[in-house]
Amino acid sequence: MNKYNQIHPDEGIRILLDLDVDLKTEKVPVKDALNRVISDRITAKFDVPNFDKSPYDGYSIRGEDTQNATRENPVILKIIEEIPAGHYPQKNIQKGEAAKILTGGAVPKGANVNLKFEETEFDENYVKIFSPIEPNKDIIKAGEDTKKGSILVEQGDVLTPGVLGQISSQGIEFVNVYKKPLIGIGVTGSELLNSKEELTPGKIFETNSITFKGIFQNLGFEVKIYDIIPDEEEKIKKFIDESINEVDILVTTGGASVGDYDYAVSTLQDLGGEVLFWKTAMKPGGSIVASSYKNKTILGLSGNPGAAILGMYRVCLPYLKKLLGRRELFSKTIDVILKEDVNKKSPRVRILRGYLEFINGKVYFAEKSFQGNGILSSFIECDCFAEIPAGSYEVKAGTI
C-alpha cells in the first residue's frame, strides 16, 4: 500500500486499529460512573431479590386453601402475622392461615400466592376470599431480576443507568473504569475567527472546535481546545511539536488536502513523524491524514465541517473507541430502503447524512438537504448515515 494514495475507508480503520493503545484505569464511585467504560467484568454475588417477595399490599396464602371459595361461601383464613417491607417472616403459613403482607415484604414459607387487599374482605384477625386462586401466583421470585453468577457488565462496556442500578443492587460502591484520555483539538485556517473577534470580509467564525468538543465529550474523552493556528507551516509545526506532549491524542482540522497552504503532511515529515495514510476513497471526508509522532496518534481531518465529521465517524471512530477501552468498536448498521433518488455517480464510497422514517411498517432512509463538504446544518436532527458503495451509479428510490 502506498500511504499517499487513496485507500478504502475500511483499510484506514484497519491501520488505526493495529496501533497499540495504553489503557490506564482508576476507581470511581458508582454514583459518579455514568457513561464511563468499565475495566473489569462484574458478576452478581447473589440473587436480586434474594428472597421471594410480594408485588403489592395484600395477603400471603396457600392457593390450595381457596379451591372451593365462592361469593356465597367464602374461604376464611386466620391472619397469623403482619410482614412490612424490610421485615422477614417469623412464622410459616399452614393450612387455613394467612399473613398480611405489604409491598416488597418477604413471602413466608408455606405461602404460594399473594392476593391484593381489594380482592378480599378482612378485619384484624381474619381474611375472606371469594374465588379460587391457583398456586404460584403473583410472587416476585428470588433472582427474578438478577441471578447469582450472572454477568452484569463485561469489560469494555459503557456504564448506562440501568447497568449502574444493577451494580448498586449488589452493594457495590466503587468500580474500576478506564481513565478518560485527553484529546486535543487544533483548528488551522487563516480565514478563521473566534467568537470574540469582529467578522470582516473574507473571514468566517470557527465552528470545528466546538462541534468536535461535543462529539468527543459524548464519546467519553476529556477535551482540550487550542487557539486557532494560521496557515503558516512553521506555526503549525510548532503547535504540533508542543501540543502533542500535553494530550493523549491530537485531532486537527484543516490542511489535510493538497492545496498550497495544506501543511498536515509536510509538517509531520519535517518533524520526523510517520504518516500512516493520507486520503481515503470516500466522499465527503476523504481528506484524512493519520500519523504517529512521539508515540502518539495525530488525526488530521478536513477543515470543512461536513467532511471532517463524516471522516471522523467513518474512519476514525473505531480507533477512538479503542482508546476509551470500549469493547464494541463499530457502529450498528442496518439495511434500509432509500426514500428518494440519489442522482449522483459514486466512484468512491459516498456517505449521506439523513434520518430514519418508519412508513407502513418499513424503515426508510431520508436524505437531509445540502450534503456539501462545508455544510454543518445537515447534522441537525441527523440520526444516521447511509453508505453508497463505491462504483455505484444513480441509486433509485426503493433500493435497499
Commentary on this structure:
It is built from 6 helices and 23 strands. It is an alpha/beta fold. The strands form 6 sheets. The chain has a 6-stranded mixed beta sheet with strand order 6-3-5-4-8-7, with no helix packed on it. Helix 1 packs parallel to helix 6 and helix 4 crosses helix 5 (264-271). The radius of gyration is 31 Å and the shape is elongated. The protein starts with 8 loop residues before the first helix and ends in a 12-residue tail after the last strand. The model has no long low-confidence stretch (mean pLDDT 93).
Overview in brief:
The protein is an alpha/beta fold. It is 17% helix and 26% strand.
Layout of secondary structure:
Elements: H1 9-17, E1 25-29, E2 42-43, E3 58-61, E4 75-83, E5 97-101, E6 113-116, E7 120-122, E8 126-129, E9 151-153, H2 161-168, E10 174-178, E11 182-187, E12 192-193, E13 204-205, H3 208-219, E14 222-225, H4 233-243, E15 249-253, H5 264-271, E16 274-278, E17 282-283, E18 289-293, E19 296-301, H6 305-324, E20 337-338, E21 349-359, E22 362-367, E23 384-388
Parallel strand pairs: 4-5, 11-14, 11-15, 12-13, 15-19, 17-21, 20-22
Antiparallel strand pairs: 1-10, 2-9, 3-5, 3-6, 4-8, 7-8, 16-18, 18-19, 21-22, 21-23
Helix pairs in contact: 1-6, 4-5
